[in-house]
Structure formats: C-alpha cells, structure tokens
Amino acid sequence: MTGWDLQPPDIGRTLQDTVKIAKELQAQAKAFGEHLKGAATAAGTLAMGGEKPEAGLVGLALSEFAPHAEKDLRFVAARSAKSVQGASEATTAYMNGNLQMAADAQREARKAPDPDFGKPTGEKKK
C-alpha cells in the first residue's frame, strides 16, 4: 500500500500495554497528591507562641509546588491518551485502505492535547 510497514496485532498489543501503564501512572499521580499533602502536614511548623499554624515553611513550599506538578501530570495523561487514540485511529484507517485518513489521524495525534478536555468550563485549570 505505502512505505508503512504496520503489523496490527503488534500495534494492538503495544496499545494495550500502553493503556495499562497509563492507568498505573494515573494511580501513582493520585498517590503523589496524597503523599504531598502528608509531607506538608508532617514537615512540622514553627510555633512562636500563640496558635499553631496548620503548615510550616515546607508545607507552604509544597502547596506552591503542587499546582504546577498537577498541571504537568494532567498534561502527561492527556498526551498519553491522545497518542494511544491517534495510533489506534491511524492503524484502523490504514487497514481499511484509507491512507489519507491514517495520515490525518497521525498528524492530529501529534498536536498538543488539552489536559482539561471534558471538564466543565468552571473547573478548567489555568
């Protein structure tokens, strides 16, 4: 058909393995957030008399770090999902003999994903 040399069974196995790893990454990202909160709480505070604050300097630093790390993790998850979907669509189009659709799916998969896709407008992160 073209210069492409696709082996659909191998692609299917690779996509399944990638989805499995992406799900594990999602679980690790959730655990990361929980561990970050635990670290912020356990790091202690500087009590200079009066009421003891909920978090100290380390907790404050972690609270500043967390939104940036969350944004990056959401992007990685969205990138993974878009890549798997694009590879699947391109392979299906190729096997159906539609090389233009395969090329279009491949090109679309390379574009940057929207990590907030599917969230209501008020819930989208900046």
Automatic annotation (TrEMBL):
<feature type="region of interest" description="Disordered">
    <location>
        <begin position="101"/>
        <end position="126"/>
    </location>
</feature>
<protein>
    <submittedName>
        <fullName>Uncharacterized protein</fullName>
    </submittedName>
</protein>
<dbReference type="InterPro" id="IPR045436">
    <property type="entry name" value="DUF6507"/>
</dbReference>
<feature type="compositionally biased region" description="Basic and acidic residues">
    <location>
        <begin position="105"/>
        <end position="126"/>
    </location>
</feature>
<dbReference type="Pfam" id="PF20117">
    <property type="entry name" value="DUF6507"/>
</dbReference>
